[in-house]
Structures are given as structure tokens and as C-alpha cells.
Design the sequence.
């Protein structure tokens, strides 16, 4: 009987000829079922009621590339960041920031920012 995936999904790992090799062995997870620390971080941020760049862009109906360009141009203020050095932290936003960003975007589009 094949072992079960270590993620807890209940699926069995399909044994392949290469798994008989002593240097390879049987994998613990089905491909793609391994724990993802980045996904865990996203869920922690969202559990605290904060938004990520993707969420903000969906609410503003702009692309992430457009958001980064507007931030670099100074139209949007620098957001709060979470993370550890040496890697720069991820942008996190409070839900109240959506209205301020929308107002800055509207001001730029309708006559103030160019």
C-alpha cells in the first residue's frame, strides 16, 4: 500500500520506479501539496484584516504594474511594509487606505497629478 500525502489531504502517493532508488526514496508529499510559507504569510495578513497589493488593485480596478508605477511616480503614498531584512517587506494596507488611494487616483486622472 502506498503512503498517504503528509499534507493531510488523504490522497495516496503514486509510487514510481525512481522512488525505489535509495538516494531518492518515497516523497512525503504529492507534487504541489508541500507547505508554502508565502501562502501561510498571506493568510496571517488577511486574518488581521489587512489587504495586499493584489487586493488593493482589484478594488481600484487597476493592474499591479500600474499600481507600482503610480507609487514610484509619487501619486500613491508609500505603504506600510511587513517582512524581514535583507529582503524588503511586502506591502500591506488597512481597508481605510482604499478610499485615500482612490481619491489620489481620481485626482491624478481628472486634472491634478500630471
Sequence:
Amino acid at each position: 500500500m502506498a503512503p498517504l500525502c503528509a499534507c493531510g489531504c488523504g490522497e495516496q502517493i503514486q509510487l514510481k520506479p525512481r522512488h525505489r532508488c535509495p538516494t531518492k526514496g518515497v516523497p512525503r508529499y504529492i507534487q504541489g501539496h508541500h507547505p508554502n510559507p508565502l501562502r501561510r504569510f498571506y493568510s496571517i495578513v488577511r486574518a488581521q484584516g489587512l489587504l495586499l497589493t493584489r487586493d488593493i488593485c482589484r478594488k481600484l480596478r487597476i493592474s499591479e504594474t500600474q499600481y507600482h508605477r503610480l507609487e514610484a511616480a509619487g501619486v500613491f503614498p508609500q505603504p506600510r511594509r511587513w517582512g524581514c531584512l535583507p529582503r524588503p517587506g511586502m506591502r500591506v494596507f488597512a481597508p481605510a487606505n482604499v478610499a485615500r488611494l482612490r481619491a489620489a487616483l481620481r485626482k491624478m486622472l481628472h486634472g491634478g497629478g500630471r
Remarks:
- The longest helix spans residues 97-109.
